[in-house]
UniProtKB/TrEMBL annotation:
Pfam families to which the protein is assigned, alphabetical: Amidase
Family statement: Belongs to the amidase family.
Stated name of the protein: Amidase
SUPFAM superfamilies: Amidase signature (AS) enzymes
The Amidase domain, residue ranges: 35-458
Source organism (scientific name): Streptomyces hiroshimensis
Highest taxon listed in the record's lineage: Bacteria
InterPro entries assigned: Amidase, Amidase_CS, Amidase_dom, AS_sf
Length: 488
């Protein structure tokens, strides 16, 4: 098939997802240039409104697509090149050679000379990186907006956020600009946007995807992971990006997530947990978020699983999260070309990283293993924990923008109290679509949590659930593209 591929067919292929695009490319039904051109055109069309991308690699991506087409013609698809010619996006906290890594910050950042290890692995699998997606400043908030790039909007409702901090990646996948994207998760930053844009998002085991050139990210709380429409696509991207660098501090044993997506999970014992870990902020579970999670619990029970309400013993896990998070902010804030351009709240958090460094940080790190034993006790009796992904539906754009640092922290903890404990523990978690709010049809998510190296079990369970729910058949109303931005 030539680059004059029918636009309708291209749209169908783009919407069909990662695995189907890879299959069509390997079968010669479409060229990489055609898919990449189509992706770039959709990005350009939606960028004034959705604002999903910080950097678009137009010429470079097309050159990479042409190189992929030559390799496809030589029969190199499949095997070690499972993503050959497929357009993907990555979050702007990983390095792409020739592009700056601004991580949501304002300023003149120099281009990077080499790819991050995760990007290197995606390229080694044959992927074409079409651009870098927006993220709030240093990934700190569950919304994607800031003075450096404006507001990133949710394709399901452009008055609402797609979440954060991987909000640009989520918006790009939800709108069909790319079939999947690589995000990162330091307190739910993959799972929150997945929930609020009707996607599958996986935070894998710490170290499953290398953070190199960082030996670990944000003192070990941040992991890279996939956002996609289907479990199989998320598993495919996770498998392609997985692997360690010699300099990584965390190098878990490999697991086969691709096979897991095709495997029946067996009958599992699932703990339904609706109470979040303690945090020093008001917490309230929206009735529709609660109902969506309970409905998923009932669906799992109908599939033969035993679902029982029970809560993990979190203890004082929140006291170990803050020093690590703020220390990471301080480290990153020290790298920006012009610190004066940082958000006032970032400066407050960076100062907190200084105050909570040293001995306090060492104590926080030392508490991780006792916390694993305490929380992990529940897995003596259960295989998986089911929780809401967030306590509320998507926030409105600008809802956090004018708040003080303390009020911002309180608001985001209240909205998103369910995801961050798993970042402390380093264990896998994933968000799956759980339905929509009744009045505004805003997406909601449910979270599946497991112990160390349990990605295969979570993925098998999610795939079984997906076969019943068929959430991938539901898309945002495309008329969002006809709207105009409410603010810059």
């Amino acid at each position: 098939m030539t680059d004059s591929t029918d636009v309708t067919h291209l749209t169908d292929l783009t919407d069909s997802g990662l695995a189907e695009q890879a299959r069509a490319l390997a079968a010669g039904e479409v060229t990489s240039r055609a898919l990449v051109e189509h992706s770039l055109a959709r990005i350009a069309e939606t960028q004034p409104l959705l604002n999903a991308f910080r950097r678009v690699r137009g010429e470079a991506a097309l050159a990479e697509a042409d190189a992929a087409d030559r390799r496809l013609a030589a029969g190199e698809a499949g095997g070690r090149l499972p993503l050959l010619g497929v357009p993907l996006a990555v979050k702007d906290d990983v390095d792409v050679a020739g592009e700056p890594t601004a991580f949501g910050c304002a300023g003149d950042f120099p281009p990077k000379s080499a790819d991050s290890e995760a990007v290197r692995r995606l390229r080694a699998a044959g992927a074409v990186i079409v651009g870098k997606t927006n993220t709030p400043e240093l990934g700190q908030w569950p919304v994607t907006e800031g003075p450096a790039f404006g507001v990133t909007r949710n394709p399901w409702s452009t008055e609402h956020t797609p979440g954060g901090s991987s909000g640009g990646a989520a918006a790009a996948v939800a709108a069909g600009l790319v079939p999947a994207a690589l995000g990162s998760d330091g307190a739910g930053s993959i799972r929150i946007p997945a929930a609020w844009t009707h996607l599958v998002g996986i935070k894998p085991q710490r170290g499953r995807i290398s953070t190199w050139p960082e030996p670990e990210a944000f003192r070990g709380i941040t992991c890279h992971g996939p956002l996609a429409r289907t479990v199989a696509d998320a598993a495919l991207l996770l498998q392609a990006a997985s692997g360690s660098h010699a300099g990584d501090l965390h190098r878990p044993p490999p697991v086969d997530v691709l096979a897991a997506a095709e495997r029946d999970p067996g009958r599992l014992r699932i703990a339904l947990s609706l109470r979040p870990a303690f945090a020093a902020a008001r917490q309230w579970l929206d009735p529709e978020a609660r109902a969506a999670t309970v409905r998923i619990a009932e669906r799992l029970a109908s599939l033969g699983h035993e679902v029982i309400e029970e809560e993990p013993r979190y203890g004082l896990i929140g006291l170990t999260f803050v020093p690590r998070s703020m220390s990471g902010v301080r480290e990153w804030a020290g790298r920006v070309p012009d610190p004066a351009l940082l958000d006032t709240r970032t400066k407050v958090n960076a100062r907190g990283g200084l105050l909570l460094g040293g001995g306090v940080l060492r104590v926080a790190r030392a508490a991780e293993e006792p916390l694993r034993r305490r929380v992990g006790e529940i897995f003596d009796r259960f295989d998986v924990i089911l929780t809401p992904t967030t306590a509320v539906p998507p926030l409105r754009n600008g809802e956090l923008s004018d708040l003080s640092s303390s009020r911002t922290d309180a608001a985001m903890i209240a909205a998103c109290p369910y995801s961050w404990p798993w970042n402390v523990l380093g264990w896998p978690g994933m968000s799956v679509p759980a339905g929509f709010t009744a009045r505004d049809r805003l997406p909601l998510g449910a979270q599946l949590l497991g112990p160390a190296d349990s990605e295969p079990r979570l993925i098998s369970l999610a795939a079984q659930l997906e076969a019943e729910e068929r959430w991938f058949e539901q898309w945002p109303d495309p008329t969002y593209a006809e709207a105009t931005p409410a603010c810059a």
